[in-house]
């Protein structure tokens, strides 16, 4: 059997250091930690596949923009014959304070266009999630502008410091299941 971890983000260097690319950063760190060095273009995503216990673990970064990332995710689910309940999606979340990480099973999209796209394309919302808190935009700033704004200096350093915790949350789900991960990462 295969497992898929899909990190959400936007392709291209201009988006590399934005809050919306939290999923890409987490998947990149997982790949580094798990020594997944070969990336290929597959089903509209960059993927790297490694053996994890007795399963294939597919690390994926959809290469379409966030709003239509569900198309690549559903193609990957079909290619690897993975049920949607075995999908782990890593994404930014403005409803969580910066630096926080939460594990979650199913639920709505909460206005997140990547989650909306996955839900619409798969017809399900019962996939697993690792939510990376980025906080709310200041003042009346549009949330879309906020999550796509390039970060620099201390803001980027603070953001990058949460990526290892989110990667640990993914590993915890893979090794111990979602219930254990929720107990470990959702207790504040």
What does this structure look like?
With about 190 residues, the protein is α/β, with parallel strands linked by helices. It has one domain: Peptidyl-tRNA hydrolase (Rossmann fold), CATH 3.40.50. About 40% of the residues lie in helices and about 25% in strands. It has a 7-stranded mixed β-sheet with strand order 2-3-4-1-5-7-6. β2 and β3 form a beta hairpin. α5 packs antiparallel against α6. It is globular. The termini are far apart.
**Average pLDDT, to the nearest integer?**
92
Please state the second-level CATH architecture.
3-Layer(aba) Sandwich
Amount of helix: 25-40%
**How do the SSEs run, as a string of H and E?**
EHEEEHEEHEHHH
**What is the CATH homology-level superfamily?**
Peptidyl-tRNA hydrolase
Q: Name the CATH class.
A: Alpha Beta
Give the biggest sheet: 7 strands, mixed
How widely separated are the two ends? 34 Å
Shape, per Cα inertia axes? globular
Strand arrangement in the largest pleated sheet: 2-3-4-1-5-7-6
Strand residue percentage: 15-25%
The helix/strand class is alpha/beta
Q: What is the C-alpha radius of gyration, as a whole number of Å?
A: 15 Å
The tally of structural domains comes to: 1
- Could you say what the CATH topology is called? Rossmann fold
Low-pLDDT ranges: none
Number of helices: 6
- Number of DSSP strand runs: 7
